[in-house]
Amino acid sequence: MGSWIPKLLLLQLVLLLTKHADSSSIIKYLPGFEGPLPFELETGYIGVGDEDEDQMFYYFIKSESNPEEDPLLVWLSGGPGCSSFTGLVYENGPLGFKVEAYNGSIPTLVSTTYSWTKVANIIYLDQPVGAGFSYSRNPFADRPSDTGSAKLVNEFVRKWLAKHPDYFSNPFYVTGNSYSGKVIPAIVQEISNGNYICCKPQINLQGYVIGNPVAYYDHDKDSRIPFAHGVALISDELFESLKRSCGGSYSIVDPLNTECLKLIKDYHKCVSGIYQELILKPKCETTSPDCYTYRYLLSIYWANNEIVRRALKVVEGSKGKWERCDLSVRSNQDIKSSIPYHMNNSIKGYRSLVISGDHDMTIPFLGTQAWIRSLNYSITEKWRPWMILDQVAGYTKTYANKMTLATVKGGGHTLEYKPEENSILFKRWISGQPL
Q: Is 413 a catalytic residue?
C-alpha cells in the first residue's frame, strides 16, 4: 500500500504542473524596480515535444519603437544551460542590476540605455529544457541535444506566433551568443525547412545574429594559443615551439606526443591568471562586489526570491534553485560543426551578422575568421574600421553570402562588455544601414 504513495505524489505534481502550463501573463511591475515598467513585458510557458511535456519559459518584451513592424527576435543564451535572463539583464535588454553589495533584500533593477528593444521585439527564451525556468513534466525525459533543441525552438516559435498572430508578418531573426551560436544556424535551417515543407504559420525568417559563437569547438579552442601569442600573453619562443611540436592542433593531442603536452602545460601556466572572457578584466573572486563577475550573483539572488517568482508567474514547484548558467543541464552536443548549416542558410539567402569581441580568449576572433574563410565566399566589402563619433569601434568585412563579420574593439565573450557599441552595431545592421 505504501509503495503507491510516491507514485501518487508524482501524479499530483504532474497534474499541478499541467494545470498551469502553456500560459502567459502581462507583467507591469517587477520586484526590485521602482514604479511601473517603462516597456511591455510578458512572461509565460509554451509546451513543446511529446504531449507538450517540455515547458519552455520566456520573457517577451515589445519594441519601444514600432512593435507592429519592427523585427521579432528570439534570443538564446549559451552554456548550454544559461538562462536567457542573462541576455535580458546583462547584454541587450532594457533592465540591468545596480551593482552593489547584497544586503539580503531584493537586488535593485534599473533601466538601461543600450537595449535592442529600442528597435526590436525580443523573446528571451530559456532553452534547452532545464535552463532558467524551463522544465519538463516528464521526470524521465531524455537528455537534450543540439539537433533536438533546434527542432524544439522551431516548434516553440511556431506555437508562440500562433498565440501572437499580430507578429506573423514581422521580419524574424534568431539571435544569441557563445554556445547557442553553434545551434542557431541549425534552428534557422529547421525553421526554413518548416516554411518550405509543412508548417503554418509561415515565419517571416530573414536571418540570424551570433556573437562570439562556437562553430567547431576543437578548432575554436585551437585558436586560443595564437591569440595568446598575438596579445603578448606567451613568448615567441613558446609559441614557435608549440607550433613545431603540436602542428597547430592543441585541443586533441596524441598522448604519445609528450613534448607537445609539456608545452601546453607551460602555456596554461602563463595564462592561468587571465580572465578568458575578457582578458582586460582582472580574474578574481565573484563574492567581492569590486569584481566584475559579482553582478552575476545578483541575478541568482533575484530569481530565487519567492516574491520575484510569483511576479514572473513561475509555476510553483517546477524549479528548484535557479542558476544563471546551470552546468547540470548536460546536453548531447551532437552538432560537431555548425559550418554546414551556415552553408545551407547562405544558399537560401538569409542575412547573418557575426559579432566578435576582439579581447575574448574563450572563442577568439581568429577562430571565427577561420571558419568564415572556410565557407569560401567572395568578399563584397573589404576589411575596414567601423566608427562611432569618429572613433574606431571595431572592424568589419562583408561577404557575398550576405554574412557580415564585425569585431568590437575591447569587447569580450558576450555583449555585456561593450553594450553601447554592440547596440549601435545591431541597430545599423538590422535596419540595413552600412556599419
A: yes
